[in-house]
Amino acid sequence: MDGEKFSVEAGKPIRCKAAVARKPGEPLVIEEIIVAPPSHHEVRVRIICTSLCQSDVTFWKLKDLPAIFPRILGHEAIGVVESVGEDVDEVVEGDVVIPVFLPDCGDCADCKSKKSNLCSKLPFQLSPWMPRDKTSRFTDLKGEVLYHFLNVSSFSEYTVVDTAHIVKIDPSIPPSKACLLSCGVSTGVGAAWRTANVEAGSTVVIFGLGSIGLAVAEGARISGATKIIGVDVNQEKFEIAKKFGVTDFVNVGECGDKPVSQVINEMTGGGADYCFECVGLVSLMEQAYACSRKGWGKTVILGVEKSDSLISLRCADVVGNGKTLTGALFGGLKAKSDIPTLLKRYMDKELELDKFVTHEVDFEDINKAFDLLLEGKSLRCVIWMDKQASYSKGVRTS
What we know:
seven-stranded mixed beta sheet; 12 helices; oxidoreductase
């Protein structure tokens, strides 16, 4: 791959196109911006393609903090290192990398431990800045600061990312599949694989059959679960979910007077081995806990509620039933070691990433990707910066 080795722009600002969110809920504006060179522990990356995640839409709509405008959204992507800043030794110009929102510094006690994926040196925050010096690498042509998003900001032809947030990968992997592991698919698969450690022959319940829920199903499938129950209010999702290993379905609207947890307890003979909440509703988190099996059931919370929301559990149930309730950011994955493993499982035809990609659009049509997601027509829409240019530089596009 040629990549951007020996880039003539190294150390200089780059002028390029970006899709800028200037006002809440309004179409993104394709405009020229200035991307500063990377500072210490940073790399500048030419984005090959990026995919649209529900989190992008959530923050695009949000009017109050932590929302902030103008901003460059996007956090699921793959790119080529164009240039590196000082104190960077793990990648060089031309390397293919996946940026990730959750840091993996490799130095702190948490990153060195197998027990956690929450870096203590660079704690994850919903910050509009670069993580180390709290400044931006983006300005528009008027000199106005453009804010970062989730440490990535991939809706730009070039972006700057801290080395704690990049994973070097095999350049032969199709970028439209590899970019999915930046966030959503990794979160769901990782929750089943790493956080829950789903066992062969086990029973799994998934509340919410959006992209995250389907990724949990995929993770449970490749882990050998034999009964995977999907719970949703949208009947149309059930046929799609079968492709991801879901074996049984519960339509919440058809449970009558019974709580959905009671229906599931009856279906499973006392509760599921593993339950996953992928919607972000406290009521469903409580229902998920209620239908996890007494003695060893494990409930994993992936959905995000308001920060001050409270989960109510009876003390007697917590003490007497021997269940586990846990959260999982990024599915419990350690990006730099686990993403390459997942990509190998994809290349070995175990992990089926292809079925997550339902649409592809050119960068100029990025607002169409938002429309498709808002209309419920896509799981993942891949947005190509310049597919033909990527192909000519030796990057596989399919």
